[in-house]
Amino acid sequence: MRVITGTARGRKLETPKGLDTRPTSEMVKEAVMSMVQFEIEGVNFLDLYAGCGQMGIEALSRGAHRCVFVDNSQEACALIRRNLEHTGFLSASLVVNSDAEAWLRTARGPFDIAFIDPPYGKGVAPSFLERISSLIRENGKVFIECDSRESLPEHAGCLRLKKEYQYGKTKIARYEVEGS
Got the DSSP string for the chain? Predict the structure, then answer.
């Protein structure tokens, strides 16, 4: 897995061993980043269920100002820190070792763009959307990766579903703050 473009272009990222973490595919990462390519400069980015941190690192490489990475695995957080050191983005980042639900109860925003990749098949995506909606700025966007068969709400807090994209068994849903 590599950083696709930007200041860290081509840098290889470590990925987790085993099946506990399912990294976002290169195709999905490129698709999401293409959707925000003209909006990423200077933003605050959230990578929730960060895994190896590739989505947030890609955002930083493309000009995001800051990224918060949240994962409940200590091993994943250590991996994210190594990847941030390797790409030179450690100082623009905060790595939080916490359960996503617990973190959302006390989190402070605002974020311009959030990427959420919860475990597939658990049905937790709708509740995360509701909780994260208060952390997103006006004109902000939330992307959620889930199983293509999972049903997502049209509205969650101030967020409105704009479009769903399917990539094999993966679905990406793009939400935007209502009125933006």
Answer: -B--SSTTTT-B----SSSS--PPPHHHHHHHHHHTTTT-TT-EEEEES-TT-HHHHHHHHTT-SEEEEEES-HHHHHHHHHHHHHHT-GGGEEEEES-HHHHHHH----EEEEEE-PPTTS--HHHHHHHHGGGEEEEEEEEEEEETT----SEETTEEEEEEEEETTEEEEEEEETT-
